[in-house]
Amino acid sequence: MSESAAALDITDLVFRYASGVADVLRGVNLRIDHGEFVALIGQNGAGKTTLAKHFNGLLKPSSGSVRVMGRDTRAAPVADLARAVGYVYQNPDHQIFAQRVRAEAAFGPRNLGLSPSEVEQRVERALALVGLREHADDFAFSLGRGQRQKLAVASVLAMEPRILVVDEPTTGLDQAGARGILDLLSTWNVEGRTIVVITHDMTLVAERIPRTVVVNDGLILADGPTRHVLTDASLLRKAYLRPPQVTRVAQRLGDLGVAADVLTVAELYRQIAARVGPS
Amino acid sequence: MEPADDVAIRVRDLRFRYPGATRDALAGLSLDVCRGEFLGITGPSGAGKSTLCLCLKGLVPAGEFSGSVSVAGQTVAPGSAYVESSALVFQNPETQIIGLTVAEDLAFGPENLRRDPARIRAAIPVYLDQVRLAGYQDVDTYRLSGGQKQRLAIADALILEPEILILDEPTSELDPIGKDQFFEVLERLRRERSITVIMVEHAAEQLAAMADRVIVMQHGLVVDQGPPDQLYRNPVLFHHPQAERAPQISEVLFELLQAGLLPASQFTAQEEAGIQRLRALLENSVQPVAQRV
User: Fold this and answer.
1) Cα–Cα distance, A48 to A220 (Å, whole number)
2) How far is B143 from B136, CA to CA, in rounded Å?
3) How many Cα atoms within 13 Å fall on the side-chain side of residue B57?
4) Which of A168, A202, A248 lies nearest to residue B173, judging by beta carbons?
5) B94, B173, B177 ranked by CB distance to A242: nearest
6) Which of A186, A158, A141, A193 is nearest to A3 (CA)?
7) Which residue did the predictor score with more confidence, B154 or A41?
8) Which of A85, A86, A77 is nearest to A7 (CA)?
């Protein structure tokens, strides 16, 4: 695998789960470079998860190609792909299987053939990052949903992959939990890792993720800076999505001079305050 | 005080502790819910929201239980029968989907209540349509996406035509329009059949639009409650980095209020009302500028 190639390079990807049934992906082209932080959004059933499962070779194209750091996923050994790409599942209970929290987080790195001390270090670091260190000896399934979600993330973080794919990481989390996970992903991104997040949480995308890709009906409907994509209400409508509430509010106040590309609460506040505040 | 027969749910000093836990999941919680009321429940992970939902359905988990719970006139206690006039949508749809096909899964609930088979068959497409799964009758349930499973679980509850609908984060995996459509279905059900709705939800914007009252739970207790326009003004619970999610419109108005740019009487958590308040604010401030020009 090559550092100079794109992190993920997808060309004319077509995928169907069985012959004779409709294509789930109908010709996807997408390139994600090293160090990018990308949101994949789209309606339920649009093909987001199916697309993401191609990123680590869990699924192989029916036609077209997926290259991970330059290697075609049909040719690359699963072990190499697993080392390069970490995948956190939508439902943590599909992923967690060990009895204890610590054992769950250790499973991945142990299978990478690391030394026991290296495994232990990585597990400690990953559990600390998600705030589960004090639960290291607890039963994994006695944790609440939000904590199981964090454990699922920690288990993948412990493998320290170059590319991290996270499917709906904030489902079932409260606001503080969701922001905590995003903080964590941002930190990893700043360290140079490539992060792809599948989410329905437009607020978090607007606040935190610079590039947004809209998947609709097995195709890429839009791909660009989040500020362009998330403020285009008619485009989003086609994908059963809509801009964050502050963006909708700003656009309804456009005739009074409020900018149409507002993405966050702070931005809308500044727009209003600048007009009504003491001059 | 509401007359007693207007109370759909009455909870008094409810304590519950899971086996081996070091603290109570529910710590002496009291709550009344009126017939036809839409009650929103919010609060951080681990506050006891899901445990409360289970108790309200009569599915008291194993553990230490004290206090009293009455739902539609039926007393709930450990080992008591589950409450037939209420339906619960679980947080994780996988917990409740058991049919091999979508139609089988939908029929399971009403069949167990011995409803007329012909009526069940007729109802299936109606409820699938309501959750945007029209035509999915014969699809294998394991093939559904996460969001589709969640919508099926919602249809499973709706088809029972319950008096009381208990929803534990039913829209967490739905896309934004799917969330809106789900809330529209609820609104219609309330209009047509005046059902009581108890809903655990982090989607503050929809809660603010729909709920008559929202309660905030922390550590097994209700720490604040009120109509959305009142509740979302609480600066301890909302509007800071560690806070629960509040509607974005309420966050903007709250900041304007803090800065002295908006009178407190103008605060709201509703989108439409918020737009009107901001519009008035901007129009009033534009006037002097125009005069200066």
Assistant:
1) 10
2) 11
3) 20
4) A168
5) B177
6) A193
7) A41
8) A85
Q: How far is CA A37 from the centre of its chain?
A: 8
Distance from CA of A2 to the nearest CA of B (A): 34
The backbone region for A64, taken as left when phi is positive above 0, alpha when psi lies in -120 to 50, beta otherwise, is left
* Model pTM score: 0.86
Asked if B252 is an interface residue toward chain A (Cβ–Cβ < 8 A), one would say: yes
CB contact under 8 A, A44 and B261: no
CA distance B139 to B131: 15
Contacts of A158 (CB under 8 A, 6+ apart): A105, A106, A108, A109, A119, A122, A123, A125, A126
Tokens matching residue A167:
């499917």
What is the maximal distance between C-alpha atoms in chain A?
67
* DSSP state letter for B73: T
| A164: helix, strand or coil | strand
pLDDT for residue A54 is more than 50:
yes
Look at the block and give the residue holding tokens 């305050």: A273
Between CA B159 and CA B169, with CA B165 as vertex, the angle to 5 degrees is 105
Of residues B56 and A147, more confidence is placed in B56
Retrieve residue B179's tokens. Answer: 């969330």
Question: What are the residues whose beta carbons fall under 8 Å from the beta carbon of B240, sequence distance 6 or more?
Answer: none
Whether the CB of B228 is below 8 Å from some CB of chain A: the reply is no
Coil, helix or strand at residue A147: helix
B27 touches chain A (CB under 8 A): no
Cα distance between residue A273 and residue A195, in whole Å: 35
ipTM attached to this prediction? 0.86
* Domains of chain A by start residue, with CATH: 8-233 (3.40.50.300), 244-279 (no CATH)
d(CA A239, CA A232): 11
The Cα B263–Cα A276 span in angstroms is 13
Q: Where are the domains of chain B?
A: 247-293
